[in-house]
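Q: I'm writing a short methods note and want an example of a predicted protein-small molecule complex. Could you take the sequence and the SMILES for pyridoxal-5'-phosphate and return the bound structure as tokens? Please keep the output block clean; save any remarks for afterwards.
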Amino acid sequence: MAGTKPDSRVSLPVSSHKPAPYDGPSRDEVLALRQEYLSPGLLTYYKSPLMIVEGKMQYVWDETGRQYLDGFAGIVTVSVGHCHPKVIEQVQAQVGRLQHTTTIYLNPNIAQYGRKMAEHMPEGSGLKVSYFTNSGSEANEIAILMAREFTKNADVLAVRNGYHGGTQAAMALTAHGNWKFKSSPSANVKHVTPGYCYRCPYGLEYPSCDVKCAHDVEDVIRYETPGEIACFIGEPIQGVGGAVTPPPEYFGIVYEIVRKYGGLCIADEVQTGFGRTGAHFWGFENWNVTPDLVTMAKGIGNGAALGNALTRPEIAAMMKNRVHFNTYGGNPVSMAQGMATLEVIDAENIQQNARDVGGHLKQRLLELQERHPIVGDVRGMGLMLGVELVTDRTSKKPASAQTAEVLELCRERGLLIGKGGLFGNVLRIKPPMCITRDDADFMADCLDVAFGEVSK
Ligand SMILES: Cc1ncc(COP(=O)(O)O)c(C=O)c1O
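A: Understood, no commentary inside the block.
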């Protein structure tokens, strides 16, 4: 197993939580069991995979009792903190009362949670009707289905470098060669240019580029579709793609073109929603646009297998066109967890914290950029930040191997972060939104040391 080196240059804030002694199977046994009995498609991070056995708020512990700061929130999922006491209390109460009933019967949780969801949408948007699912992929499937039924068109536009999930339709939307199986069909999906200024495919610069990437959508519709489309789907900030943050006008231009050709606009808020971008509750609000459908998962339930495809009533009505059934979507336990998470986000100023601590962390990362030539770009909003590493700032050659090494060096010092981007050269920093300024400083200090080491 990778050694854990004490390093006087960084100091992990010590949690007051004491993890229970671990008495389960060893890490090696667990690894062997996974290798023998589980799909080899389940990837792990690190040269020597890490085993996590307990979590409390922004921290997790391995089987030896070693504490880590979870800078990736279980891939952007744990929004208000691991095992947040208020969330756990409501989930435990619900599990003890009624674990499952399908939506063929009434239950208060789904109804009350549906109303609470609607209350969190922008006023006057008409967005109010939820279809609860078990994952983000499934939410995107449902949203695309509704858009196709509503418009009676088949063609869907998605953004290159985006990620929308692992089911067949979601994979088709995803425009990363790495994530596509050669055998998966992507009929009726066309991909448009992202607002990725650091790697502008046209070699232009903002703002003199006149946001050409957004205008490209019109050409794709004219040349590659029958001229009418079902919808456009885009992440307000691309997550897996590496915190790619478009120019402010990008979505306004795209939405206008899409609507001109009869399409609906879907905002995939699976990573950006629930206050993560700090300034706004929803990622799309940063761009002054109002989507027709909003898909959610991950942070929605602080770890629950929960997603949602939310839209206006007239679009939601399309689900009545056929019988459509979902055994687990909307189950009382997920609903209790989603409701409790939303209550905590509201009560504990989680969004404000994402804005304040995220702003501080971004500032620290920008300072690192000044001192470390390997840092090509720092981007993102709130607690959804990305650092793109390059071997050379002029050629922008992706520093993929160094990025993997930075992850290892951070882990040795007690920090877990993610990576993404087509070349695996973007550090992804998306911790639980309850982190403190001290945690943020620890992250920046760790990265400072790691950047120095990989640049030697
Ligand atoms: C933006 C986005 N959409 C959809 C998904 C798919 O969600 P899930 O893994 O819950 O199916 C993800 C997962 O990472 C995502 O990042």
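A: Remarks, as requested: The domain at 86-347 is CATH 3.40.640.10 (Aspartate Aminotransferase; domain 2). Residues 350-371 form the longest helix (22 residues).
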